[in-house]
Description:
Elements: H1 14-27, H2 37-44, H3 48-51, H4 58-82, H5 89-106, H6 108-114, H7 127-151, H8 157-177, E1 182-183, E2 186-187, H9 199-214
Antiparallel strand pairs: 1-2
Helix pairs in contact: 1-2, 1-4, 4-6, 4-7, 5-9, 7-8, 8-9
Amino acid sequence: MFNDKFNSYDRKNKRAFQIGQAAYDLITEKPFNDITMTMIAQRAQVAKGTIFNYFNSKEDIYMAIDINGYTKYFEQVKAELVATTITNQTELKMFLVHTMKILAREYQVIILIHSLRRFTLEAHADPSQTERGRSAIYQLLSSICQTMVTNVPDIDINELIHAFIIQGSILNGLLTFANINKFNGVNLAIEMPATEIAIEKEACQLFELYLNSILK
């Protein structure tokens, strides 16, 4: 168990971040189950034993990537919010749909890693660092939504926070069903054109429908 002074989930920990970046790159090339600690060490150009100075397991590494990915996303949302003028619910809805575009364009790998959380990552990830990371993300998200409520007072902050949960869920669902007409990247013999998904476009459409239910 890592102590409070050694947070390997923190992006400021350069060696841990180097290991995480190597693991991130590998999962864009190989299935999760095929990735080994040896592969990660080789890609990160560190000794295999060095990894265990920072992470308990492969699952631990990917939980750190998951947390760091969402942290980076919400930091980006916060920066965009500061640079955007929002005075009413229509402008707020436009901004929130814009954040979905960012998530769909830049964070699909993070969403797919997050989908491993419940049945795979939590089995061997560090619980204390996971809790600390999620708490920090929630505080960041709450701060973002508080700014929105300050600009547009007639909105429930909890509904806004929940909207971001729905946002990720929509994208996760679409990514799960995307490319169902392929197997390991190879087209199946049967044609299934109706199963094709335009990820960004349809994610934004679905999210806007949800926002219509909470915004006037």
